[in-house]
């Protein structure tokens, strides 16, 4: 994606670090990360079902939700972007495993604070809860780098699809239940279950994960160095990613809160929508990995943007649970066509010695660019009503589709 073959950096170790993983340990790492994703995916999708309605019901405001989502989400925000920038740098300096352990600790702190918020119903606790939620994203560059370094180059697209499959699979099973549990037993139970699952993650990392890269690549002047994207061929990828993320997060970060407020949907209804999205996402992820292996990243990413058009139009005209359920099918396809293609091209475009840092840079800069998007969405909703955020996202997706064709070459990545 985005890097002509003659400009690609060789995906081999550099002098700043030493690869450490054997084929057996590499295979085990992929399965450990897949198992962790199974647990993380379970509670992530519980949070996806309940977090937006929880904030709206606690604060009485979609605008407050949009500000908190701009601060930090499970995808980014200001804090999430900063933490991924730092996490990528530290992963190349300390190694991948220590960063993943630290991030797991941040996730446990966030979930503990959400439990306290649900028990006390004191909304100011939402601020540190979201802050630590963003800090937990520190592990993303390290985890992606570890997957890439645990398999052969030609196997990366399918390895990413495999760990992504396990991340999404629980939503297909759990999301339907999550909304019901929140309606029946309250939000505190959901947050407490999530905390227990993250504690299991930490245990898996401590006992089973094997380091794939001995750090030492970080040089002097760290802040200027880690905020500067030094590979010019990657800048086209960054343009595409920034526009795509901004366009989507205008509406996707507040859509469930909006439909709760506009149409009176219950947590159980949101769980059904997330479950349908997840079934489609999980069911199409592995085939999309094969598609990336065959075609490269350009056409799956272009297809992802095209799927976004019926999603935005569907959200605008939908009013019933059935309407939104149909839209959720297309929404699942937008994710499965994008994520394996993006992760594969980033992994294959840099060497091991800078993979963590570059992954963190790309994700962080994309997040910085996109953090005002949910705030903009909340402002549009407050000023012009329900359709306004989706209209903005619709035109943003069209622009992103054009940029994919402009910046993403059609060569194969593996």
What characteristics describe this protein?
disordered N terminus; 414 residues; Growth Hormone, Chain: A; 17 helices; two-stranded antiparallel sheet; mainly alpha
Verbal overview:
The protein has 414 residues and is mainly alpha-helical. The protein has a single domain, classed as Up-down Bundle (Growth Hormone, Chain: A). It is built from 17 helices and two strands. It has helices at residues 23-59, 62-71, 77-94, 96-120, 126-135, 139-149, 156-185, 187-208, 222-226, 235-252, 255-263, 267-295, 298-317, 321-348, 352-370, 372-384, 387-407, and strands at 18-19, 213-214.
The structural domain count equals 1
Distance between the termini: 11 Å
Helical percentage: over 70%
Strand order, biggest sheet? 1-2
The CATH architecture is Up-down Bundle
User: Secondary-structure element order, as H and E?
Assistant: EHHHHHHHHEHHHHHHHHH
């Amino acid at each position: 994606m985005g890097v002509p073959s003659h400009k690609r950096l060789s995906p081999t170790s550099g002098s700043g670090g030493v690869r450490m993983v054997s084929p057996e340990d590499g295979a085990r790492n992929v399965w450990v990360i897949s198992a962790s994703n199974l647990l993380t995916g379970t509670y992530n999708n519980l949070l996806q079902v309940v977090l937006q309605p929880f904030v709206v019901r606690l604060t009485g405001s979609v605008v407050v939700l949009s500000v908190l989502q701009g601060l930090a989400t499970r995808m980014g925000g200001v804090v999430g972007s900063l933490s991924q920038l730092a996490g990528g740098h530290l992963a190349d300096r300390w190694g991948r495993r220590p960063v993943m352990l630290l991030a797991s600790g941040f996730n446990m702190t966030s979930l503990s604070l959400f439990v306290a918020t649900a028990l006390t119903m004191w909304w100011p606790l939402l601020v540190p809860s979201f802050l630590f939620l963003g800090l937990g994203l520190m592990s993303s560059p390290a985890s992606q780098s570890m997957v890439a370094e645990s398999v052969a180059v030609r196997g990366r697209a399918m390895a990413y699809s495999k760990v992504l499959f396990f991340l999404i699979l629980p939503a297909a099973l759990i999301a339907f239940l999550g909304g019901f549990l929140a309606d029946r037993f309250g939000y505190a139970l959901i947050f407490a279950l999530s905390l227990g699952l993250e504690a299991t993650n930490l245990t898996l990392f401590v006992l089973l994960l094997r380091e794939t890269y001995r750090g030492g690549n970080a040089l002097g002047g760290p802040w200027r160095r880690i905020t500067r994207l030094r590979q010019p061929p990657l800048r086209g990828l960054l343009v595409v990613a920034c526009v795509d993320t901004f366009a989507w997060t205008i509406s996707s970060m507040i859509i469930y809160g909006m439909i709760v407020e506009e149409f009176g949907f219950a947590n159980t209804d949101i769980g059904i929508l997330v479950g349908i999205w997840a079934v489609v996402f999980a069911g199409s992820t592995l085939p999309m990995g094969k598609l990336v292996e065959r075609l490269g990243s350009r056409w799956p990413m272009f297809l992802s943007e095209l799927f976004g058009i019926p999603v935005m139009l569907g959200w605008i005209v939908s009013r019933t649970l059935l309407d939104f359920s149909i839209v959720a099918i297309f929404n699942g396809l937008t994710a499965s066509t994008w994520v394996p293609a993006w992760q594969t091209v980033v992994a294959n475009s840099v060497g091991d010695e800078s993979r963590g840092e570059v992954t963190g840079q790309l994700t962080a800069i994309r997040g910085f660019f996109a953090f005002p998007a949910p705030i903009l969405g909340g402002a549009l909703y407050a000023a012009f009503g329900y359709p306004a955020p989706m209209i903005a996202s619709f035109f943003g997706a069209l622009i992103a589709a054009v940029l994919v064709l402009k910046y993403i070459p059609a060569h194969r990545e593996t």
